[in-house]
Amino acid sequence: MVAKSNKSKEPDDGDRLAKGNMQIMLMSTSTTIEAKFIDYCLELSNWKVLPVGPPVQDPITNDTDDMELIDWLGTKDENSTVFVSFGSEYFLSKEDMEEVAFWLELSNVNFIWVARFPKGEEKNIEDALPKSFLERIGERGRILDKFAPQPRILNHPSTGGFISHCGWNSAMESIDFGVPIVAMPIHLDQPMIARLIVELGVAVEIVRDDDGKIHRGEIAEILKEAEEVLLALQLRLQAFLLLYSLKGVVSDLFVYTIMQPNSAS
Predict the structure, then answer these.
(1) Residue 167 clears pLDDT 70, i.e. is over it
(2) Which structural domain range is residue 45 located in?
(3) In a domain, 239, yes or no
(4) How confident is the model at residue 263 (pLDDT cuts 50, 70, 90)?
(5) How buried is residue 3: exposed, middle or buried, by Cβ count under 10 Å (0-12/13-18/19+)?
(6) 141 is a domain residue
(7) Among 194, 179, 186, residue whose Cα is nearest residue 214
(8) Confidence at residue 208, expressed as pLDDT on a 0 to 100 scale
(9) Residues 244-262 pLDDT 10s
(10) Residues 205 and 147 reside in one and the same domain
């Protein structure tokens, strides 16, 4: 005989959506990005679905904590610097860090690399990198082992590309600031987001082998050509076009939209 628990199951988000008495769903997206998926949500429910556009943080211009980094970035040519960050929830292994260091050194481009460590496992950044790496790159790069002012970096005219894990917020910030993405998804929903932004024409994805490994030189070649190849310029142009579509008139349409009959009913 199987004993039954007296504890009732806590409803998850799916249960709340299915059983709740909600009439409006706000989605952190845009019809420019996910029109067909928004339409699908409309077909599945009786709610009014309102895409409010990704909430992108405005760059902070009066924060003096990061001025040394921003001043350094200001010495670089327009679109000449790559920002490298894999988010706050994933940490590279020593092997992965050595690979990224190899790519950046081989590419010969300027870069800002956020290389963070798990809490309690912090280490000297120089010890985690290939021997003499910092000496070899000199003034070409900056490596941070702490929080980075991502919106300020992406919004800076010297920034021309973003090597990203493709978290939703990071992808939307990069699009909002008109910066093409070199997609390097790692886990969870990141591969799907990478595929989406590649289809939008604002990113290129790094090709992995059957074992999930990235071949040495893959990123380096993309970065070497980033300022010369038409694709990179085309990505930037499309990113800017998408930017204007995202900003649009979302705030002006908010009240109007929620007052209209649901188009799916």
Answers:
(1) yes
(2) 22-55+248-259
(3) no
(4) very low
(5) exposed
(6) yes
(7) 186
(8) 75
(9) 566 554 444 444 444 455 5
(10) yes
pLDDT band at 111 (very low <50, low <70, confident <90, very high): very high
Check whether residue 26 and residue 76 sit in a common domain. Answer: no
Q: What is the DSSP string of 117-167?
A: --TT----HHHHS-TTHHHHHGGGEEEESS---HHHHHHSTTEEEEEE---
Whether 31 is in a domain gets the answer yes
| Degrees, nearest 5: CA angle 9-14-17 | 115
pLDDT of residue 255: 42
Res 52 pLDDT > 70:
yes
Beta bridge partners of 114: 144
Domain total in the chain = 2
Contacts of 230 (CB under 8 A, 6+ apart): none
The model's pTM is: 0.77
**Are residues 157 and 28 located together in one domain of the fold?**
no
Which residues touch 135 (CB under 8 Å, ≥6 apart)?
Answer: none
51 and 148, same domain (yes or no) = no
Evaluate whether residue 14 is within a structural domain: no
Looking at the structure, do residues 98 and 40 belong to the same domain, yes or no? no
